[in-house]
Amino acid sequence: MSYRRIRQTAVRRTGARGARALVSGCVLAALGLAAGPAPGALAAPAPMSGAAPDASAVPVAPETTAHTVTLVTGERVTLRADGSVVVAPRPGAEADYVTRRLDNDVFVIPLTALPYLGRTLDPALFNVSALAEAGVTTTPVRVEAAEGATAPPSGPAFGAALARQISAEAAKGSVGEGPLFGGVSSVAPAVAADGLREAPRPSARADHTVKVTVLGTDGEPLPGTTSFALANADDAALYQEPFLDAVDGETRVEVPAGHYTAMVSAPAFDSAGEPAGVRMATAEFTVPDSGTGTEAVLDLRKATERVTFSTPRPAEDHQLILHYLRQDAKGAVAVNGGVGVSGGSPVQVQPSGRPVTTGDLRFNVYTHRKAPADAATPYSYDLKLANPAGTIAKNQHYKVTARQLATVRTNYHSDTPGRAQEVARLMYLPYETSGEALSEPFKTPARRTEYVGGSAGASYTDWLKAGERRFVSQEQPLVPGRTTTVDWLRGPLVPGFTEPARGAAADATWYCSACRKGDALTFSLGTATVTDSAGHHVLAVPSDITSSHFAVVSGDTTLYEGDGVPGGVLTVPPEQAPYTVVYDQTRTNGEFRQSLTTHTEWTFASGHSGGQTVPDNWTCVSEAGEYEGPAECSALPVVVPHYRLDAGLDGTSPAGDGRLVVGFGHVPGVVAPPAVTKARVEVSFDDGERWTAASITALGKGRFRADWTIPDSAAGRDASLRVTGTDAGGNAVTQTVKSAFTVAAGES
Predict the structure, then answer these.
(1) What pLDDT is recorded for position 34?
(2) 685-to-477, 708, 742 alpha-carbon distances in Å
(3) Helix, strand counts (H, E) of the chain
(4) Which end of the chain has fewer beta carbons closer than 10 Å to its terminal beta carbon, N or C?
(5) Residue 526 — pLDDT band, cuts 50, 70, 90?
(6) For the residues of 595-664, what is the DSSP string, one character each?
(7) pLDDT in tens, 187-230
(8) Quick check: 23 and 37 in contact, CB under 8 A?
């Protein structure tokens, strides 16, 4: 057996947002099969051993991947492949942090760590990108300490001890000056050095001294160690440092001549050591070719404008995130950072006296706000608002009206009562390539009205954590005035294909999941992908699939079969021929009861593709195993079901009348697909031993209503579904879902 590689290519902002992924592949005789990407994904090769792929070699596609790292301080940070982060606090604490982004590295630094950053705590402890790349889930540390001194274990215990130290220091009037934990001099990540990247050093001759002073709110140099960012605004490649330390308010650095920009986010702590807010100050200055030295001041007294909001209905501040993006004169990123706070901590910024004159500045704010606890019906607000280009506005109060809002009536389904879940909404403005959010914990099943608003061109994607599974939506545009209803985790949860969101950007790259390019036939469900009735799909890691089997058959010939691979790319003969793809999947998950076992068969016909049916922004895999443009790429006539099961938020249906509306369509990219004219739905109340055909009513446009009777004897038992749809061209899908819903227990 030899290996076939699929090359990685550049990708524009999409669901994958330019990230990398791993895909494995093998060649069988004259028919090549490589495990293919999920739609919207970009793949790169990974080694695979054995005659057939196993679960450890399952391909990972960017839009279905995420990695969660528990920081040394106990916060959980989930990093998506596009660089977006979702932050969850350590138990019993708020999630207050600052971020710094440099090239492909994302740093998430809790406010409690800032006073010790660079002095005792290595910034690499908070480089989430590098920790994820190194495969870290809980940050391992290397500690240097005086004899007898120790550091608590990495994680929540470390974070709690750090908070206690800050509390003790704050009571004495100064934070960050004492020895850490009574004698710890250094804490750094204990992982391979090549897994953690240092910030690039200046490449130009740095022969000019700059004295930088950070002044506190009393006008005096800020005591302790304060981290700030400094970059050349003419060309950030000449000088760019996200972490410089001002010790007791001062530092000196050597830089080349030019225009410079600096930014500091400094926390304040009350006498009990609790975060009492954050101030963001900036400075723009010039380092001349001549002269004996330059002085620059970051003055926290100038951070006078508190960021506040007003909304049509009363709402409490749950989280606030600021994003500061300073670009150089060439359009490259010079300083990229932000602040995130929860629980209403005040954040104050320094307004601009005038727009920047070298390069550009983009500043925006995001807030998630919740209804008061006594509200009759829960509701929330998610707002993402930009300041005028080049400035930080003098007025940082944002008044939002009903006309600026979209309304999302959201139903959170749960087949397990009281399941703990977390929700986050990542919002993007047109110039942003990644987002940030704090997760909000809640119990399900639940209903909530969610109001979403933002500046022109805003878009968003939703993120839901149920147990250890992470589900996401496709990115979708924000349309003020629109009201929609969205169901999360409405069953059955089945393997399927993700689809571009309605209104998705026409130039966003999309990777074809079921298509033919010449004689390369791609059929890929993605990695461990499971979708709910609304198309939300599960992220690949961690996977709860305990077994799966994938096979491709043409006539009497099995072209490929193997375990642990949910799709691939086959080189097939050019003649028109029938194909059947079979995929079995079993999941083991204590937080979900239903839809854990499925069997799906797709049948379709395909021949050599010499023409293009997919949009121009799509990418397809060629016979050479490379991602190429859409020329000669046509979508396969694969039929897919879309369910709307008549069941409650808890996944139960009472005895008596049962109903399912199922709509059949085709995978994205099919032009003028044959109409789905036949449907069959069967239900079983004895784990598939006996099946009863439902009564079918055609509703038009590929939609059918199935009605059946649920006997009283089935009360308290699970019911299984088998659904078949066939189009006028003979292409069909049959999907069997065990324990698709539960018959409600009878009243005693």
Answers:
(1) 35
(2) 42, 12, 9
(3) 2, 54
(4) C
(5) low
(6) S-EEEEEEEEEE--B-S--S-TTEEEE-TTSBEE-STTEEE---EEEEEEE---TTSEE-SEEEEEEEEE
(7) 999 986 444 445 445 556 678 999 999 999 999 999 888 999 99
(8) yes
